[in-house]
Amino acid sequence: QVQRVESGGGLVQAGGSLRLSCAASGRTFSTYAMGWFRQAPGKEREFVAAISATGSRTSYADSVKGRFAISRDNAKNTVYLQMNSLKPEDTAVYYCAPVNWGTRTNREGAWGQGTLVTVSS
């Protein structure tokens, strides 16, 4: 199992930017596709973005396409989510996890503590 710790969340005004980080442990990190998910208050957790094990492929939810960018540094066991042009509807707790590419679901099932992003209007 890949242990991970999310960070970088905070309060930002609409139109602003944030960069989230996910520090993962384990020698197998570089063999997994990784994804970001989010859960807004009162809503189901949803897929946001994914990146392949080597970083050569990315995938995004329609709601964030063109505004968010996922990247990874396998030497640092870290996945990033650059979020630009933030909207109030992006307010959520953001989680990273190994991802099943085809189904856009958490490969391991377990979730970390996440990092809270709040976008004010």
Descriptive overview:
The protein is mainly beta and about 120 residues long. It has no helices and eleven strands. The protein has strands spanning about 5, 10-15, 20-25, 35-40, 45-50, 60, 70-75, 80-85, 90-100, 105, 115-120. The strands form two sheets. Strands 2, 4, 5, 6, 9, 10 and 11 form a seven-stranded mixed β-sheet that branches. The chain is globular and about 40 Å long. The relative contact order is 0.31.
Individual helix count: 0
Radius of gyration: 13 Å
Provide mean pLDDT, rounded: 95
Query: What's the count of strands?
Result: 11
Helix content: under 10%
Largest sheet entry: 7 strands, mixed
How far apart are the first and last residues' alpha carbons, in Å? 38 Å
Note the overall shape.
Answer: globular
What structural class do helix, strand and pairing data support? mainly beta
What is the string of SSEs from the N terminus onward? EEEEEEEEEEE
Proportion in β-strands = over 45%
Low-confidence stretches: none
